[in-house]
């Protein structure tokens, strides 16, 4: 009698349901642990250090700010949407008990906004006495071609030209410091997938049909070319330039793409991403922290780290010095670096 009741209990819908849930939950965590990569934790106290993080109100940018704040750093959240930044900043302060987290508006597609951001950090009540690192995390992808107020396609403006201008305007300040500085760019191995520099169509205006993913790939290639060229030009200085690939990560980067607008395709994309090893941001941030703060990468320059913090080789396009120089010259012109730099220096004087 007791045995029959035991069997009935084990085969009841509730028991079966809980067992299935347990198996699914356990399976998910086993899978998640395999996709998280090798264990890593940054064991550094960053008290007294200051970092700037772009695109810091969500995804890896937000995770980077929180991890830095946990380790007592002062962090400047360079954000497009100040209202959202204030909300995110409040949560980070509550979680880390570090009030040295600040919101500063900086829209990377708007070159005037970038100049104003740098001006505020250079003089006045928001002036920074030191900058130990800059994380170029902000990125965008869009399904339709849109341009900024200067007529530049927004993906290349945000993902490359904005970072180029921000770095250029900060460079004198960084070089004048007697402390080591690390500039970290986030990138991806998609730049190795049938990708080449299209200087004749950098503005994505000559294609028959706008392909947001291809334009995104092209913008990340441009960013990688800039990273490598910058590292070469800064060799021997107090500034190191490193690139980190966080791997496939859960984020809202592709939220504007066509596949994300319909609930069924959005659900299918999530399933596919999960199957391909999409990682949570708290795991994906590891190579970024490694490049930015780890003692092992101190003094290293011009290196590209993959999601496992292993060296990733530069492809032939990136190693083409002629292409890097041509892109540099175009970027100087399109971002109006000289004009903005004069305005920053005028304010400082």
UniProtKB/TrEMBL annotation:
InterPro entries: NAD(P)-bd_dom_sf, SDR_fam. Keywords: Oxidoreductase. It comes from the Eukaryota. It holds the Pfam family adh_short. One of its GO terms (molecular function) is oxidoreductase activity. This is Uncharacterized protein.
């Amino acid at each position: 009698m007791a045995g029959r009741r035991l069997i009935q209990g084990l085969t009841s819908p509730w028991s079966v349901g809980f067992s299935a849930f347990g198996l699914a939950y356990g399976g998910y965590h086993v899978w998640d642990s395999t996709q998280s990569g090798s264990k890593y934790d940054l064991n550094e106290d960053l008290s007294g250090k200051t970092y700037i993080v772009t695109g810091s109100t969500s995804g890896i940018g937000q995770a980077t700010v929180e991890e830095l704040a946990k380790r007592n750093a002062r962090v400047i959240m360079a954000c497009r949407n100040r209202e959202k930044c204030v909300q995110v900043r409040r949560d980070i302060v509550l979680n880390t008990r570090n009030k040295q987290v600040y919101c500063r508006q900086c829209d990377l597609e708007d070159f005037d906004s970038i100049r104003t951001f740098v001006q505020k950090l250079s003089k006045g009540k928001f002036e920074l006495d030191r900058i130990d690192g800059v994380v170029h995390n902000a990125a965008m992808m869009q399904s339709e071609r849109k341009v900024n107020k200067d007529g530049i396609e927004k993906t290349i403006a945000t993902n490359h030209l904005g970072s180029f201008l921000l770095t250029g305007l900060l460079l004198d300040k960084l070089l004048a410091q007697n402390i080591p500085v690390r500039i970290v760019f986030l990138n991806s191995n998609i730049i190795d997938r049938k990708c080449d520099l299209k200087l004749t169509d950098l503005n994505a205006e000559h294609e028959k049909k706008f392909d947001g993913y291809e334009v995104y790939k092209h913008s990340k290639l441009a960013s990688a070319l800039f990273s490598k060229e910058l590292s070469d030009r800064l060799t021997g200085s107090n500034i190191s330039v490193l690139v980190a690939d966080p791997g496939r990560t859960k984020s809202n980067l592709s939220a504007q793409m066509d596949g994300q607008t319909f609930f069924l395709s959005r659900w299918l994309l999530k399933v596919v991403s999960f199957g391909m090893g999409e990682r949570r941001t708290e795991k994906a941030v590891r190579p970024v922290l490694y490049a930015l703060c780890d003692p092992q990468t101190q003094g290293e320059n011009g290196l590209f780290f993959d999601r496992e913090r292993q060296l990733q080789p530069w492809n032939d396009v990136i190693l083409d010095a002629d292409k890097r120089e041509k892109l540099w010259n175009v970027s100087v012109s399109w971002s109006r670096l000289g004009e903005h730099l004069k305005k920053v220096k005028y304010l400082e004087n």
